[in-house]
Amino acid sequence: MLPVITPALRRGLLDARRQLRKNRFRSVGRSTNMIIDGDRGTGKTTLLVQIGRGFHGLIEADLGHDPNRIPVVYINVPPERESNLHWSLPFAEFLGLNHTLNPGDRTRRPADMTEPVARVMERAKTQLVLIDGVDRIQDNEVAAAFDYFEALQDRTRITYIFCGTGPARSSTTPGMASGARTCPTKSRARRTSATCRCCGAGSSPTARTGTVVCRPSKKTCACMTTSPAPC
Question: Is the pLDDT of residue 212 over 90?
């Protein structure tokens, strides 16, 4: 069945398309990552998959079909997340890489596939990684998980889109939080704090980056926001 394009789904697709377009032509630094957040049953995974399909189609429309190109990788958060080995396995499975030592052995002990995964993604010109179920990452696992994501991003210049219920806490990890955008699947009001150059500190539900409505003067002033504006 085809998904129904609701206003929230359309908005999420447009936000992701704009950011991915910027990331494609970014020459220095890490790409800006995104988070899909929302309540259960609001269509987060549907939006994630539609973003991946749309980006894959865009790459093929621009560059033509190439059987060796893998522009998008999609994984679910693995059940074990204690080491780089555990994080590398879902990437290896998606890319079709054998991740066992001595495959003929009954134990089939897995190997750390981080280096092979990075090499394959680099050769395949992977630009987007979709990670579903990040709400399953426990607080004590956040730092190790995002250290792994950062290391892989430094090697391959990919963009991550994280998806889960309440995953915003993960984005507070140093490094990955810089420039991250949160794209909710359900519209909600947000209050933005700001410091006004004309009349000092203040806040307004209508604040946006660059301007704020000052409560004392009722004027629109230039300001510096202290929290990101909604997507």
Answer: no
